[in-house]
Amino acid sequence: MAEEKKGITVKIDADLHAEVKAYVESQGLTMAEFVSKALDDELHPKMIMNGGTTILFMQH
Length: 60
Fold this sequence. Notes:
Strand order of the largest sheet: 1-2
Radius of gyration: 15 Å
Distance between the termini: 24 Å
Order of helices and strands: HHEE
Strand content: 5-15%
Number of domains: 1
Largest sheet: 2 strands, antiparallel
Protein backbone atom coordinates (compact mmCIF):
# COMPACT_ATOMS: atom_id res chain seq x y z
CA MET A 1 0.00 0.00 0.00
CA ALA A 2 1.38 3.41 -0.98
CA GLU A 3 2.07 6.00 1.68
CA GLU A 4 -0.46 8.86 1.73
CA LYS A 5 0.91 12.12 0.30
CA LYS A 6 -0.07 15.67 1.30
CA GLY A 7 0.82 18.93 -0.45
CA ILE A 8 2.68 22.02 0.75
CA THR A 9 2.53 25.29 -1.18
CA VAL A 10 4.86 28.17 -0.31
CA LYS A 11 6.07 31.39 -1.93
CA ILE A 12 9.81 32.10 -1.85
CA ASP A 13 12.03 34.80 -3.36
CA ALA A 14 12.59 34.33 -7.09
CA ASP A 15 16.38 34.23 -6.66
CA LEU A 16 16.15 31.45 -4.07
CA HIS A 17 13.69 29.56 -6.27
CA ALA A 18 16.11 29.72 -9.21
CA GLU A 19 18.96 28.48 -7.00
CA VAL A 20 16.89 25.60 -5.63
CA LYS A 21 15.60 24.66 -9.09
CA ALA A 22 19.15 24.56 -10.52
CA TYR A 23 20.36 22.46 -7.58
CA VAL A 24 17.43 20.04 -7.79
CA GLU A 25 17.96 19.55 -11.53
CA SER A 26 21.72 19.05 -11.09
CA GLN A 27 21.09 16.32 -8.50
CA GLY A 28 18.47 14.52 -10.58
CA LEU A 29 15.82 15.04 -7.91
CA THR A 30 12.23 16.12 -8.13
CA MET A 31 11.21 19.21 -6.19
CA ALA A 32 9.07 16.95 -3.96
CA GLU A 33 12.07 14.74 -3.18
CA PHE A 34 14.24 17.76 -2.36
CA VAL A 35 11.63 19.43 -0.13
CA SER A 36 10.86 16.14 1.66
CA LYS A 37 14.56 15.59 2.37
CA ALA A 38 15.10 19.20 3.50
CA LEU A 39 12.12 19.06 5.85
CA ASP A 40 13.13 15.67 7.24
CA ASP A 41 16.70 16.91 7.80
CA GLU A 42 15.42 20.03 9.58
CA LEU A 43 12.95 18.18 11.79
CA HIS A 44 15.16 15.14 12.43
CA PRO A 45 18.81 16.27 12.22
CA LYS A 46 21.38 13.53 11.78
CA MET A 47 24.30 15.62 13.09
CA ILE A 48 25.13 19.09 14.35
CA MET A 49 28.34 21.08 14.50
CA ASN A 50 29.34 22.23 17.98
CA GLY A 51 32.45 24.40 18.03
CA GLY A 52 34.21 22.30 15.41
CA THR A 53 33.02 19.01 16.90
CA THR A 54 30.51 16.93 14.97
CA ILE A 55 27.88 15.27 17.12
CA LEU A 56 25.99 12.42 15.43
CA PHE A 57 22.42 11.56 16.34
CA MET A 58 21.35 7.98 15.94
CA GLN A 59 17.69 7.33 15.34
CA HIS A 60 16.30 4.11 16.79
